């Protein structure tokens, strides 16, 4: 809009080189290399609060992006191109005002993934919207519904409304809505409120919530968990997955503790983030419009609440060793009628889903590593600025994609999934095999990296990082 010199709230259409309308959705990112788009303004409308909010977010995003990625270079490049193209447009005397810009999908996706804002005290967002949930009822195709049941599902293809529809579908498909007499409108309001309470971090954002929940749903299907768990357990597993990173600020527990943030003070350094995610979840349930548990009696609610708290608190990676050890002790003589055993299994399951990106196909998994590193760099930059300890695996000077992933896949992911495999052998082919392939691929990439570094005479990066 700025380039066209038209009001900032003008609706724009995107046309491809043939003049066909292009839908502005994440599939654009999938188009390889550079694609020529034509940006055409259509009608104008009055700005609402939401648009203003969006503008603010965009401004913040632009600022962040600018700082992180030297936007001036990009700006000059785009300005030059626009000037050139405008001249061409003039020459060819098009009747409509339009400019063409090249948008690299990579740039577009990194633009979309940026932001830095602290909403921890944003009480407003906990209030459910008074109006009936308005996200269009996207009809999910039969193909989508089937694909949703597998870890191969392409999680990047969908915009927010579609992810919300998918989540809604999972609750229906698992018979949690009819079975527990849930109000379908409440389910929608709740999901919208969940979405509003995920921040636009590079990694810990609503799409991550969607991924974890979709992986949980895949595991429920793959391992026929409905045959061994009660429906209440299934409800706990799914709901804990949906809520597990609510209002994640993008800086981890160690940062919170070292920087003595409000969260660390409130929770006495004990899993500050996970305690917060969980508290936010139950603040949301305390709103009647969002209480999907309103049909349960007090006793059942207590049980569900305890279950969800236990699972969300189990996602603190500081407790990884403790939880996995406890599970290893039970797994060889696992007793599905023993409540303690079942609780431990549920904790391991949510942990698996939380860090399951590398289980997904390489094209789906790899962009998540960039997102994670971006969030890590944001943290380490801040730690340097505030003279706090910095972990080498978060340091942009020290870490690379392969070094970040190899150790994590070998020493965290594979051992945990192999332990779960003792109960559910079917995950070997579907979940562990992709992990082994990813490990091998990153080891190859690391060798190439090292060879290149040696050639450049730089010291070889020996650090094998851990990530969560
Ligand atoms: C959190 O960040 C610190 C650096 O401040 C790092 O040492 C620690 O390992 C990180 N924790 C996780 C779980 O990634
Ligand atoms: Zn998570």
TrEMBL record:
EC number: 3.1.4.-
Matches recorded under PROSITE patterns: PDEASE_I_1, PDEASE_I_2
Molecular function per GO: 3',5'-cyclic-GMP phosphodiesterase activity; metal ion binding
Active site: 204 (proton donor)
One Pfam family matching this protein: PDEase_I
UniProt remark on cofactor binding: Binds 2 divalent metal cations per subunit. Site 1 may preferentially bind zinc ions, while site 2 has a preference for magnesium and/or manganese ions.
Pathway(s) the chain acts in: Purine metabolism; 3',5'-cyclic GMP degradation; GMP from 3',5'-cyclic GMP: step 1/1
Binding-site list for AMP: 204-208, 245, 354, 405
Alphabetized UniProt keyword annotations: cGMP, Hydrolase, Metal-binding
Sequence positions that bind Zn(2+) 1: 208, 244-245, 354
Cofactor: a divalent metal cation
Binding site residues for Zn(2+) 2: 245
Location of the PDEase domain: 128-449
Reactions it catalyzes: 3',5'-cyclic GMP + H2O = GMP + H(+)
Gene Ontology biological process terms from the UniProt entry: signal transduction
Function: Specifically hydrolyzes the second messenger cGMP, which is a key regulator of many important physiological processes. Highly specific: compared to other members of the cyclic nucleotide phosphodiesterase family, has the highest affinity and selectivity for cGMP. Specifically regulates natriuretic-peptide-dependent cGMP signaling in heart, acting as a regulator of cardiac hypertrophy in myocytes and muscle. Does not regulate nitric oxide-dependent cGMP in heart.
Family membership: Belongs to the cyclic nucleotide phosphodiesterase family. PDE9 subfamily.
Name of the featured protein: Phosphodiesterase
Native organism taxonomy: Eukaryota, Metazoa, Chordata, Craniata, Vertebrata
């Amino acid at each position: 809009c700025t380039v066209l010199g038209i009001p900032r709230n003008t609706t724009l259409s995107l046309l491809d080189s043939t003049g066909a309308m292009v839908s502005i959705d994440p599939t654009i990112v999938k188009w390889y290399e550079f694609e020529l788009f034509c940006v055409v303004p259509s009608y104008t409308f009055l700005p609402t609060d939401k648009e203003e909010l969006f503008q603010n977010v965009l401004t913040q995003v632009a600022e962040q992006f600018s700082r992180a990625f030297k936007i001036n270079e990009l700006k000059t490049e785009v300005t030059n191109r626009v000037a050139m193209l405008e001249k061409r447009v003039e020459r060819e005397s098009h009747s409509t005002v339009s400019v063409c810009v090249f948008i690299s999908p990579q740039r577009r996706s990194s633009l979309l993934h940026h932001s830095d804002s602290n909403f921890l005290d944003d009480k407003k967002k906990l209030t459910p919207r008074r109006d009936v949930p308005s996200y269009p009822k996207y009809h999910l195709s039969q193909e989508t519904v089937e694909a949703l049941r597998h870890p191969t599902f392409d999680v990047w293809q969908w915009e927010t409304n579609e992810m919300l529809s998918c989540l809604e579908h999972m609750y229906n498909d698992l018979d949690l809505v009819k079975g527990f007499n849930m109000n379908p409108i409440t389910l929608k309001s709740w999901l919208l409120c969940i979405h509003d309470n995920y921040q636009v971090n590079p990694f810990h954002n609503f799409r991550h919530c969607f991924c974890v929940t979709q992986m949980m749903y895949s595991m429920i299907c793959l391992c026929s968990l409905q045959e061994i768990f009660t429906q209440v357990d299934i409800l706990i597993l799914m709901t804990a997955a949906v809520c597990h990173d609510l209002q994640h600020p993008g800086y981890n527990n160690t940062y919170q503790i070292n920087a003595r943030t409000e969260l660390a003070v409130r929770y006495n350094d004990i899993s500050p983030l996970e305690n917060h995610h969980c508290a936010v979840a139950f603040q949301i349930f305390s709103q009647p419009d969002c209480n999907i548990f309103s049909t349960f009696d007090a006793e059942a609610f207590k049980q569900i609440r305890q279950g969800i708290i236990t699972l969300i608190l189990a996602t603190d990676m500081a407790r990884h060793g403790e939880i996995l050890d406890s599970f290893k002790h039970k797994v060889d003589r696992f007793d599905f009628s023993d409540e303690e055993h079942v609780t431990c299994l549920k904790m391991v399951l949510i942990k698996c889903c939380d860090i399951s990106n590398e289980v997904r196909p390489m094209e789906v998994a790899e962009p998540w590593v960039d997102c994670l590193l971006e969030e890590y760099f944001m943290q380490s930059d801040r730690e340097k600025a505030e003279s706090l300890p910095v972990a080498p695996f978060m340091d942009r000077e020290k870490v690379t994609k392969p070094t970040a992933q190899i150790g994590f896949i070998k020493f965290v992911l594979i051992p945990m999934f192999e332990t779960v495999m003792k109960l559910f052998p079917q995950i070997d082919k579907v979940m562990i095999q992709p992990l082994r392939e990813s490990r091998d691929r990153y080891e190859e990439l690391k060798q190439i990296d090292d060879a290149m570094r040696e050639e450049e005479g730089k010291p070889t990066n020996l650090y094998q990082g851990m990530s969560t």
